[in-house]
Design brief:
It is a single chain. The chain is an alpha+beta fold. The chain is built from 22 helices and 20 strands. Strand 16, helix 14 (394-418) and strand 17 (435-437) form a beta-alpha-beta unit. Helix 4 (113-122) crosses helix 5 (124-136).
Length: 638
């Protein structure tokens, strides 16, 4: 072994996962390693570059890994001596998703993947290190702190929640694979594959998979002359075939392909090679699936030019939500990701309206209210919004408001085409009542909060759940200041608001049976929105306003924060937080199943266990009700 290779092997043995290999194995690898010298600011690879045939280890210096988001470069990680990066070629075939640039004069070792792959497949310690690191998206799964030598995942998204969900998203694949018997001749099977434009075929016995033949088998075993085209396919098939269950996730499929060094997986009824074939997953399917991760969806939204394109992305979000729930991803994470994608869709809808109408005559803010304002809109429910524009001279007011009303109507029409129904109560920026100047909105909130009894017909609690979707952050901040200023020591407001929170219909009878609808199209169904979720939503909002807690809109997060702010009643708040997630999941599953808002649950379709789980989730509501009565001493509006 030459001196350079020996030096490299000696270096690598100090860092995971190379420390799990023998010095002889490292020496074999080191011979094929290429030393790359990078000057300061030199780019090794960048976003959308074709994948290299190697991955990299920092020998000295620093490599910065970054992405471009909203035209700005965002630094993701710094790779120091012993850190591994650029592993994307191990897990996917699409281009790089980040840029690797030398922060200073740097030396990296380029390790050919073809050379290293056998050591991954044959060494469980090395394999587990890479698999766990890739799956959990951390620098080192064995040490969450500062162990030298770290692996940097190449799967880049915009938040930890999005990153986690990436691995549990939809994975579409061929559910009608080509099949043949082991006795079929290679030449006939090759003809069938050519005519069907398929690069693989499953060899079966009574629909039970025995093996698989791919284009690679044809090239390496037939085109090379190792076997004649007249042999039976069982002579050249790859066997046993690697099998998976029907609902396999993207991550599971990627990791299995890596572990077994294969390019295809066979989907069977129970995930074993003893049950019937249901489909074939190829590397191409994984590439397509990765295009559905949250970060990519947001990028695509920014490029959309029509409601039709935005609708297609919203449908992909629905698939992502459904798959994530089936994989038991925490609903709190799903809320976060879905909210960001919904927000991006609404923002793009406003942008398209502006492109059509021309530049706004004044600064403004489009605020989502209601469920999207709380970051809880998983289903395609109706849209709720308000539009606030800055104060302008009196003579310009009419002209400015006319522009923003047209903007509101165009935007709400776009959102309706995407699938968000118009609010039946007219709570939208297209309504002249909810499209007005900051001063007018200030007067509106002052009136609602300081004389609630006189304006009870107009007061809707959803106006106190808002999130800026587009425009000036200062305008939303101004509304927040008005709300919390008016809430301070406002006994009358909390009396009215408290009684309003308790006015919702009870979910259970005295004998603990569900109260269902007595008439109409939803007869005998349980209204989970009005009777179960809204009391929790209203209660969380009430206490958030009372304790002057700003910037937290989501009901689950509100209860979590309340348990910290008011530790005396922490148990009640935490029980309510858990109940909210359980009830939200029931509603979401109902909505996904029936392609509606999920408001009404057919109890007869629930199992006995689910009925009990639903009933138990309603228990904390009574404690919350008593806490509201005790805290606010409700009198006048009772």
């Amino acid at each position: 072994m030459n001196t350079i290779a020996e030096h490299i092997a000696d270096f690598l043995k100090e860092y995971p996962p190379f420390n799990h290999l023998t010095f002889e194995e490292l020496s074999e690898i080191a011979i094929s390693i290429r030393v790359v010298n990078l000057e300061k600011h030199k780019i090794l690879f960048q976003i959308n570059d074709l994948l290299h045939d190697s991955f990299y280890v920092v020998a000295s210096g620093v490599i910065n890994l970054s992405v471009i988001a909203d035209a700005e470069e965002t630094l993701l990680n710094k790779c120091n001596e012993g850190d591994i990066f650029g592993l994307r070629p191990f897990f996917a075939k699409n281009n790089y998703m980040m840029t690797a640039k030398a922060r200073e004069e740097t030396i990296v070792y380029a390790i050919p993947i073809a050379t290293f792959r056998p050591f991954v497949a044959n060494n469980s310690e090395v394999l587990n290190f890479l698999l766990e690191s890739f799956a959990v998206n951390t620098r080192n799964p064995k040490d969450k702190e500062n162990l030298i030598g770290k692996l940097i995942s190449d799967n880049v998204f915009y938040s930890d929640q999005q990153s986690e969900m990436q691995y549990f998203q939809s994975l579409s694949y061929n559910t009608s694979p080509l099949k043949t018997m082991g006795t079929a001749l290679v030449k006939d099977v090759a003809q069938l594959m050519t005519e069907s434009l398929k690069n693989n075929i499953v060899v079966c016995d009574n629909n039970i998979p025995l093996g698989i033949i791919t284009d690679t088998d044809m090239r390496s075993k037939i085109a090379t002359g190792r076997y004649p085209v007249t042999v039976s396919v069982d002579k050249i098939m790859s066997s046993p075939v690697i099998t998976v269950v029907e609902n396999v996730s993207l991550a599971e499929a990627q990791l299995l392909m890596l572990k077994h060094n294969v390019t295809h997986l066979c989907v069977t009824h129970d995930g074993t090679d003893k049950s019937e074939v249901k489909g074939i997953i190829s590397e191409h399917d994984l590439i397509v699936a990765q295009a559905n991760n949250p970060g990519v969806l947001i990028k695509e939204i920014k490029r959309c030019q029509s409601p039709k394109e935005l609708k297609q992305i919203r449908e992909r979000l629905t698939d992502l939500i459904q798959t994530s729930i089936s994989k038991n991803i925490p609903l709190s994470h799903i809320f976060n990701v879905a909210s960001e994608i919904n927000l991006a869709i609404i923002k793009r809808s406003v942008e398209l309206s502006i492109l059509d109408l021309g530049s706004p005559p004044a600064r403004f803010a489009w605020l989502s209210i209601g469920s999207q304002g709380r970051k809880e809109q998983l289903l395609l429910t109706d849209q709720d919004s308000i539009l606030i524009f800055e104060d302008v001279a009196a003579e310009k007011y009419r002209e400015v408001k006319d522009y923003f009303l047209r903007l509101g109507k165009k935007t709400t029409a776009t959102l309706e085409k995407i699938g968000y129904e118009l609010c039946p109560n007219g709570h939208m920026g297209s309504n002249m009542l909810w499209c007005k100047s900051l001063t007018d909105w200030t007067k509106q909130y002052d009136s609602w909060m300081n004389t609630p009894g006189e304006n009870s017909t107009d007061l809707s609690s959803i106006f106190f759940d808002y999130e800026i979707t587009f425009g000036e952050q200062k305008i939303e901040d101004a509304i927040g200041n008005v709300v919390f200023k008016n809430a301070k020591n406002n006994t009358l407001f909390f009396d009215f608001f408290g009684n309003d929170a308790l006015r919702k219909n009870s979910p259970l009878t005295f004998f603990k049976n569900f109260i269902v609808e007595e008439e109409g199209s939803n007869k005998d169904k349980f209204d989970i929105k009005t009777r179960a979720l809204m009391p929790l939503i209203d209660g969380a909002r009430l206490f958030i306003l009372n304790f002057d807690i700003r910037g937290i809109n989501n009901t689950f997060q509100r209860f979590k924060q309340l348990s910290i702010t008011d530790p005396k009643h922490a148990e009640i708040y935490l029980n309510c937080a858990e109940a909210f997630l359980i009830l939200s999941k029931f509603r979401t599953l109902e909505g996904l199943k029936n392609d509606n808002s999920g408001q009404f649950i057919n109890l007869n379709e629930l199992s006995k266990i689910d009925r009990e789980k639903l009933k138990n989730a309603l228990a904390p509501m009574k404690e919350l009700e008593e806490l509201i009565k005790s805290k606010f001493q409700l009198t006048q509006f009772s």
